[in-house]
Amino acid sequence: MNRRAMLMVSLVGLLALVGGCGTAIGEGAALAMGAKGEPTTIQAVSANLGVYQRFELGTITDDMGGKVPRELLTLLPGAFAKELEDEKIPNAHSGKTLLIQGKILHYQGASSMAVATAGVEFVVARIELVDKDSGQVLGVANCAGWTSKRVTLGVPEKAQGLAKAIVKWIDNRYPEDRRIK
């Protein structure tokens, strides 16, 4: 059994002792799977994304008057790169580039009353996919990232969830034959 699997088994066992079996299973699954993310299309993608070799995360701004933690915006590029890699979507250092840009519309962190009562943290961003050469907006979506278990609360997890939503939107429109083998 590899080290990560042993850690997971130990953690699930510990959680079972502390919070009951159902909670332990949920927390263990959340730890293994991480944050969740889902896009909602506003303007359908108008191009074949298979022509792009580079996916560049451009500027994502705080549209909440400074209420979005800087850490989220700092962690998002790394989380985005990891999600692209996980989905086997190529991201060359050069080539035809799709620019991903947008603004955070809503951020709900652990300190809010909603999290205390519902146990959910989330971030919603309006994201545009833009052809970098022409500046043409190819599609628009609201991308939401969220966490709902104690082991996945926090800014890094919300960055991961938002990255998952953005990459899921791209992934749904990226041809299989253009992926990394």
Features:
181 residues, alpha+beta, Double Stranded RNA Binding Domain, 2 domains, five-stranded mixed beta sheet, 5 helices, 28% strand, globular
User: Approximately what portion of the residues adopt beta-strand conformation?
Assistant: 25-35%
Query: SS-based structural class?
Result: alpha+beta
The number of distinct helices, counting runs of at least 4 residues, comes to 5
- How large, in whole angstroms, is the Cα Rg? 18 Å
* Number of domain units: 2
Biggest pleated-sheet summary: 5 strands, mixed
**Can you tell me the CATH class of the largest domain?**
Alpha Beta
What do you see in this structure?
The protein is of the alpha+beta class and 181 residues long. It has 2 domains: 1-33; 35-178, Double Stranded RNA Binding Domain, CATH 3.30.160. Helix content is 39%, strand content 28%. The chain contains 5 helices and 5 strands, in the order H-H-E-E-H-E-H-E-E-H. A 5-stranded mixed beta sheet has the order 1-5-4-3-2. Strand 4 (121-131) and strand 5 form a beta hairpin. It starts with a helix and ends in a 10-residue tail after the last helix. Residues 21-32 have low confidence and may be disordered.
